[in-house]
Structures are given as C-alpha cells and as structure tokens.
UniProtKB/TrEMBL annotation:
PANTHER family according to UniProt: ATP-DEPENDENT DNA HELICASE, PTHR10492
Name of this chain's protein: Atp-dependent dna helicase pif1-like protein
Phylogenetic placement of the source organism: Eukaryota, Metazoa, Ecdysozoa, Arthropoda, Hexapoda
Pfam (any one): Pif1_2B_dom
Alphabetized InterPro entries for the sequence: Pif1-like_2B_dom
DNA helicase Pif1-like 2B domain residues: 113-150
Signal sequence range: none
Molecular-function GO terms, alphabetical: helicase activity
Keywords: ATP-binding, Helicase, Hydrolase, Nucleotide-binding
Species: Lasius niger
Length: 150
C-alpha cells in the first residue's frame, strides 16, 4: 500500500501492523476509528461519488476500498461502475461451454448456469460490465508497448 509523504503517522501504523507490533495477546489488531466505516455508511458513494460527478477520474484511480472477501469486492465494484455514465456501457460474457477431450459425459453435466455461477479469483466474472472511465487492472501483461500491463 502506498501512502503520501505527509502521512507519516499512517505509514508508521501500516509498518507496525505488518511487523506484528500492533497485535495483542490474542493476535488481534485494533484498527483506528478513522479506518473503519460505520455499518450504515455507503462507502462507495462517500469515496467515489463526488469525484465521479466532478469527472475527476485521475483522482478516482488513486482511491481504493479494501476488502477481505471476493464477494464483497464484486459488490463494491458493481456499485462503483453503476456510478459511471451508462451510455457507452459494454458487457462482456464468458464462454458458456466446457471442452472435454476424454469422451466422458462431464461436458453434459456442466450446465452453462453452473459455469456462469463460478467466480474464481483469478478470472473476471461471467458478466463483466465496463463503462467509460471504469478502472480495470490487468492480471497479465498484454502489450507493454501500448501500456497494457499491470
């Protein structure tokens, strides 16, 4: 995680947390109140809403919401994309079939609905919705010359 040069106290907190200095005897960490959102907060709107409305997309790219669970990340990403202009939305879907080379009947058992419900962490979702100014991260370098790299 990167911090700004003037965020000395936060940088120290991150280093201490990473080094295990902040852990108590039960190996738990007390997170500062400034880092925890209230249960009823709309963190997507709080962090991205105003920036997107003002079209300050360079600043949007420097913000992040961290989550431990992929299901939460997917929901957050969906909410952020919904804040963007829908007029030029593109929807990309995954392939709905399984290739089976050993002539068994497993291909028939893997229904498209089941395949579409899978969400492995290394792959995009079955239905990927992208809008202009949507931030994406490539998990593989596609073309370094064109800047399509992670």
């Amino acid at each position: 995680m990167r911090v700004l040069p003037e965020e000395i106290e936060f940088a120290k907190f991150l280093l201490d947390m990473g080094d295990g200095i902040l852990n108590d005897f039960n190996d738990k960490i007390q997170i500062p109140e400034c880092c925890v959102a209230p249960l009823n907060a709309d963190i997507v709107e709080d962090i991205y809403g105003e920036l997107i409305r003002k079209k300050e997309f360079a600043k949007v790219a420097k913000c992040a919401i961290l989550s431990a669970r992929n299901v939460d990340v997917d929901e957050i990403n969906k909410k952020v994309v919904e804040l963007l202009d829908i007029t030029n939305e593109r929807i990309y879907t995954s392939v709905d079939s399984a290739v089976n080379n050993d002539n068994s009947d497993i291909g028939e058992a893997l229904l498209p609905e089941y395949l579409n419900s899978l969400s492995p962490s290394s792959l995009p979702p079955h239905e990927l919705r992208l809008r202009p100014n949507c931030i994406i991260m490539l998990i593989r370098n596609l073309s370094i010359n064109e800047g399509l790299c992670n």
